[in-house]
């Protein structure tokens, strides 16, 4: 027995407590490093009116695109969307509210949320439509806009390996937004390819320390490739 | 003759220096990687969290966990580093990237850039472009000088919503290489066979033409 054992027995248990109207922060870049089984579980549960925070919104029939099929997403904060026809249609019909957010600002909003920093100033977006209505302050002679942090009711994260204390390592560029997402959930759920015994992972190689992780589950992953490019 | 896409990439590559960390946008900027001079070591930064992007993988090397910011499968070169999106944008926003090359719809004489949104058309998002233009000191914009209908894209003031304000100081078009300073474009070089008159005619913003404007030269690729 350990109070630090973050493992749960099923995906149903992993997403226990998610309700309509909640905010969900998701790791991933395109289809790389997305918590694909946790997304599928949210679809299965049929919760609606979600606010989703993620760099992208999947593709038709995969990733966060699955949540569009039953119109489960009311609002999304993302830097780049529209890789999927269903998203485009829902956006044009005003069925989904899209808050386009510069990619670095989105990462920093999650990081700040997890780090207890309520807002920050950045030059990114000043003088553009993104800066409209936001507080402006000058630092070192340059105007900056204030951006507020984000915290999710849930954060859903895809890792590579973890020990059952919830110490997580990511694989290659499947890291992307996952470490920040992991810090910014009131409940952070991580799915990984392999769970190992504590002590098997090198402590100095941990990307997400277990303190951020509430629930952990091992899954199998399709890992769909969005743009397959090979060298002949 | 207007420059080809390959010639534009070749011209941009002349701005590279040994030891540069470089972020290349989608389109013509991506082609710059094909013209890194022999013997020069340049690290490509991909904003999804990769410093030291390598070539595309072979079928055997293909890994869904290894992509670039354009979501293409890639490899990491020897000496590469991989990190989170927050770390990646710390590099970009903190001004640590030596050169950024990106495309644009419009640039104006005050260094404003519009590159992400055409009102009335589907808006997909800015990705990392706003962070890149705000964070980098050294940016080259690549674009065609005028639209298909002959309308200048180098303007007195951008018409489209901005990506960044006052952040561009170098532009390479298919007709010319220009710098932006003190509220004007300065014509530095022209494409082979393109006259100063043609560039003047196709530049709507304030343009300063020095007495001598050298023609770019290109060696035929063998």
**Fourth-tier CATH superfamily name of chain A:** Glutaconate Coenzyme A-transferase
At the fold tier of CATH, the topology name of chain B is: Glutaconate Coenzyme A-transferase
Q: Tally the helices of chain A: what do you get? A: 6
Reading side by side through the largest sheet of chain B, how are the strands ordered? 4-3-2-1-5-8-10-11-12-13
For this structure, the quaternary state is heterodimer
Quick one: biggest sheet of chain B? Answer: 10 strands, mixed
- Please report the distance between the alpha carbons of the first and last residues of chain A: 53 Å
Q: Tell how many strands the DSSP assignment of chain B holds.
A: 13
CATH superfamily of chain B: Glutaconate Coenzyme A-transferase
- Mean pLDDT value of chain A: 96
* Largest interface in this structure: A-B, 54 and 53 residues
State the total count of DSSP E strands of chain A: 13
Order of helices and strands of chain A: HEHEHEHEHEEEEEEHEEE
Number of domains of chain B: 1
> What's the helix-strand series of chain B?
HEHEEEHEEEHEEEEEHE
Say what the CATH topology of chain A is: Glutaconate Coenzyme A-transferase
Uncertain regions spanning at least 5 consecutive residues of chain A: none
CATH class of chain A: Alpha Beta
Protein name (chain A): CoA transferase subunit A
Organism (chain A): Vreelandella salicampi
Keywords (chain A): Transferase
InterPro entries (chain A): 3-oxoacid_CoA-transf_A (IPR012792), CoA_trans_fam_I (IPR004165), NagB/RpiA_transferase-like (IPR037171)
């Amino acid at each position: 027995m350990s109070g630090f054992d973050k493992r749960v027995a099923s995906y149903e248990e992993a997403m226990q407590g998610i309700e309509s109207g909640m905010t969900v922060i998701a790791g991933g870049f395109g289809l790389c490093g997305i918590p694909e089984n946790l997304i599928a579980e949210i679809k299965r549960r049929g919760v609606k009116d979600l606010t989703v925070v993620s760099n992208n919104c999947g593709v038709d029939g995969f990733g966060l695109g699955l949540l569009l099929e039953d119109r489960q997403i009311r609002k999304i904060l993302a830097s780049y969307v529209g890789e999927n026809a269903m998203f485009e249609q829902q956006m044009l019909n005003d069925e989904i509210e899209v808050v386009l957010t510069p990619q670095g600002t989105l990462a920093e909003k999650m990081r700040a949320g997890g780090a207890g920093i309520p807002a920050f100033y950045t030059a990114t977006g000043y003088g553009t439509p993104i800066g409209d209505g936001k507080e402006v302050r000058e630092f070192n002679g340059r105007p900056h806009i204030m951006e507020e942090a984000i915290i999710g009711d849930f954060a859903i994260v895809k890792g590579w390996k973890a020990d059952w204390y919830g110490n997580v390592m990511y694989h290659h560029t499947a890291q992307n937004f996952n470490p920040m997402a992991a810090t910014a959930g009131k409940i952070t759920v991580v799915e990984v390819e392999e769970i190992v015994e504590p002590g098997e992972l090198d402590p100095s190689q941990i990307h997400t320390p277990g303190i951020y992780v509430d629930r952990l589950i091992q899954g199998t992953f399709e890992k769909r490739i969005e743009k397959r490019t090979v060298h002949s | 003759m207007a420059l080809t896409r390959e010639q534009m990439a070749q011209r941009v590559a002349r701005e590279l220096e040994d030891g540069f960390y470089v972020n290349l946008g989608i389109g013509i900027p991506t082609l710059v990687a094909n013209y890194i001079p022999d013997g020069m070591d340049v690290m490509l930064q991909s904003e999804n969290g990769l410093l030291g992007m390598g070539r595309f993988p072979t079928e055997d090397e293909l890994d869904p966990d290894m992509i670039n910011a354009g979501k293409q499968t890639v490899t990491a070169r020897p000496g590469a580093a991989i990190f989170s999106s927050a770390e990646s944008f710390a590099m970009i926003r903190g001004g640590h990237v030596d050169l950024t090359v990106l495309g644009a719809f419009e640039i104006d004489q005050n260094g404003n850039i519009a590159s992400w949104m055409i009102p009335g058309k589907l808006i997909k998002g800015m990705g990392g472009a706003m962070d890149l233009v705000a964070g980098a000191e050294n940016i080259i914009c690549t674009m065609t000088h005028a639209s298909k209908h002959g309308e200048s894209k180098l303007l007195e003031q951008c018409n489209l919503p901005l990506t960044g304000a006052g952040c561009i100081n170098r532009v390479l078009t298919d007709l010319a290489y220009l710098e932006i300073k003190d509220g004007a474009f300065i014509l530095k070089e022209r494409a082979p066979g393109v006259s100063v008159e043609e560039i003047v005619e196709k530049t709507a913003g304030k343009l300063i033409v020095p007495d001598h404007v050298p023609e770019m030269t290109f060696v035929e690729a063998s």
